């Protein structure tokens, strides 16, 4: 099977999963936000961001390391045995880390100056640590069996949605909502272990301190880079949790949910391309070819998603979360601008992690993360949730500029032409949405927000597609050339 065929097969599998998880995730988030209200929803958002940091100390870059090593060993005769052995080491090590991190997290939460009801919700969310430790996605991503990952993600999202509908009915059920999320991840991770036993054999705990030291030494720079990335994606909510009322955290958490879904589309493409980008390392021609294809797909998809989120921000918030979350409109638009930079960062930065250039990526991201922290401290007290969003955008931009310099040294290109075409398409789509909102205001004001959302989305997609073809951002010949490329 050609490299291109594998890439698009992976995208198809992941896209199917993400379509299901995005749909169920949107419904779950909308239901939870409405029944809990901004205050309790803000507590959940605060805890989710704290958990994201705790989970980083459980993973420690081990997934990225395992993907790189397993993907590069695919041509070896003993590939299956080596993948199973590495998976056993990774799962055992992560389980030990989950227990240690969970204990530290519990002590930290109990020391906070928060009501006991809030602490109970935050402690319940720690169940996610065990689930994250046991997830085996890295094996199936490295071996390009994305259908297995898709099945797990669909099961987790749909199971969580059904349980939330049944059990979460009011603000007093915040702790139940926290338990559902962590429990669903853990149960699906255990089911995936059963699938692994069928594909690779029985998983056994492996404790070898020498091997663990070698793995952690190689994975730590990746972990630091990912930790720095998490500063951008979660620090704003964490700091709002300490510096602002929970109601404002709830508004901002709703905006972050939408931004996360926008970024999720890019993650589908990135995860599908990453094994092929890793395999091309060392040969500048294949590296450039794969990167041009990667950048083209990422920017074509990202331009539409970001344009839609920016132009339709108030309509999206109203449709999903209700009028109580309208104050998050400006913050959401700022976060969508930050997402545009996130897409650039995924294009230019993530390949560096599988090209043995993780140190430069790490330094750039840590520097941007430090800037993000300083800006949040400065701007949140002055500008509230808009200040948090501005801090995220500014720091993302600073880090991405540094990463662009590193990437250009690696492959000699920055894909400026592709980016310019994507910006033109996005601008045309945004202009269409604003014009439609102005002309159709008398009609849309009398209708539910969903009507405006559907009409605006349809108009934007049509205009974006037309301009994308006219500018050459989307070229059928290029896609056919990619799918016929040799592995």
TrEMBL record:
List the InterPro entries: Polysacc_synth, PolySynth_Transporter
Q: Which UniProt keywords apply?
A: Membrane, Plasmid, Signal, Transmembrane, Transmembrane helix
Coarse class of the primary localization is membrane
Keyword Repeat attributed: no
Q: Does the keyword Ubl conjugation apply?
A: no
Q: Where in the cell is it found?
A: Membrane
- For this UniProt entry, which residues form the secretion signal? 1-29
What GO cellular-component annotations does this UniProt entry give?
membrane
Q: State the membrane topology.
A: Multi-pass membrane protein
Q: Which residues cross the membrane?
A: 53-71, 91-112, 118-140, 147-168, 174-194, 252-274, 294-318, 330-348, 360-381, 387-406, 418-437, 449-474
Please name the PANTHER family in this protein's record.
LOCUS PUTATIVE PROTEIN 1-RELATED (PTHR43424)
Q: Can you name this protein?
A: Oligosaccharide repeat unit transporter
Instruction: Supply the source organism for this entry.
Output: Azospirillum lipoferum (strain 4B)
